[in-house]
Amino acid sequence: MSGGLPVTVVTGYLGAGKTTLINDLLAQPHGRRITVLVNDFGEIAIDEALIVSRSGDTIALANGCLCCSLGDDLFDALDRILSAPALPDHLVIETSGVADPRRVTQIALAEPMLAAHGTVTVVDPLNLAATLDDALLADTVRRQLAAADLAVVSKAALCDAAALDQACALAAGHLPARAPVLVAGRTVPAEVLLDRLIEAGGAAPGASGDAAHPATYRSWSYAGDRRIARAALDGLLRRDDLGIYRLKGFVGLDDGSTVLVQKAGGRATVEPAAAAVGSRLVAIGAAGALDPAALERLWRSLSVADAGPQAVSSASATSRTPAAMRPAGIDE
Questions:
Q1: What's the pTM value of the predicted model, to 2 decimals?
Q2: pLDDT digits (tens, 9 = 90+) for 103-112
Q3: What CATH class does 217-325 carry?
Q4: SS3 of 230, please?
Q5: What residue segments make up the domains of the chain, in order of their start?
Q6: Domains 5-212 and 217-325 alike in fold
Q7: 157-196: pLDDT as tens digits
Q8: What's the CA gap between 181 and 201, in Å, rounded?
């Protein structure tokens, strides 16, 4: 897919109406194969007549859309989507009500196969003024508004015209200058609103995703039979000076065992692997922070050669590691 799989982040404070917007998106015959990542299936009121199949944490709909549970790890959810035989036309990520949408976008864009396509902030006109006046809530709400490429005011039917106008003006005062304010069901028809939701900020220069993140990522990968001591591996995972945003793969230990390693930001896990598959690792980081050559030297200084085929390493400054070089068997 040229330019990467477009991603729209839908955010808004608790009870703002995000789920209603997602429900409308999933139900419309828009002709797009959209995958939606949600925190909880229980909140999504999908018409049973639209459901083609359910499989684990995925619901397939008759209009080509997929609804997937986000679970505890956004990286794992993204891996499942990007490893599927066919990519969707668009990916929508619904944040939790207290999330910082820029943080969610940051995590998503650690995968260079994805492209920021804007953030949609849903605004509750009934409670916006109160939340902005609340010292405990205001910072979260302001962050969500400041990240918006498009603001959607919900619950218009519950407000009189004056209250709705006041809420729109209040929201606009906290939005970036470029971000329009639309009122769901009043200023635009539902089908037009859904088109705007998907397009959001598009790829326009200055969109929140473009401003907050580097344009390219570097990656380093290794596939071969070098092994490493567990203590050396633990030390490598603790280092925060290597520019690694995401590390994932299998690592052969010097005692003959193999472990599955995952690191996202400052959090790392090491788990026993079912089969000994040698070492296959992929690291991703922002250009200018991750140095593939330095990481290659470090890996070779910490690991030891084992008998077997010659190892293969690679680095990329512009794209996600090709499928052939990804650690096989992870989240597939």
A1: 0.65
A2: 888 777 677 7
A3: alpha beta
A4: helix
A5: 5-212, 217-325
A6: no
A7: 888 999 999 999 999 999 998 888 988 877 666 666 667 7
A8: 12
Residues ≥6 apart with Cβ < 8 Å to 241: none
Structure tokens at 63: 């209009």
Ramachandran region of residue 56, left (φ > 0), alpha (ψ -120 to 50) or beta?
A: left
Architecture of the CATH domain 5-212 = 3-Layer(aba) Sandwich (3.40)
User: If we measure between CA atoms, which residue out of 123, 108, 209, 216 comes closest to residue 165?
Assistant: 123
Other CB atoms within 10 Å distance of the CB of residue 27: 17
Alpha-helix residue ranges (DSSP H) falling in the chain: 18-27, 74-82, 101-108, 128-133, 138-146, 161-172, 190-199, 208-212, 230-238, 292-302
d(CA 45, CA 42): 7
Report yes or no: 251 and 224 within 8 Å, Cβ to Cβ: no
Query: At residue 18, what is the residue type?
Result: K
Q: Give the distance, in angstroms, between the CA of residue 168 and the centroid of all CA atoms in the same chain.
A: 28
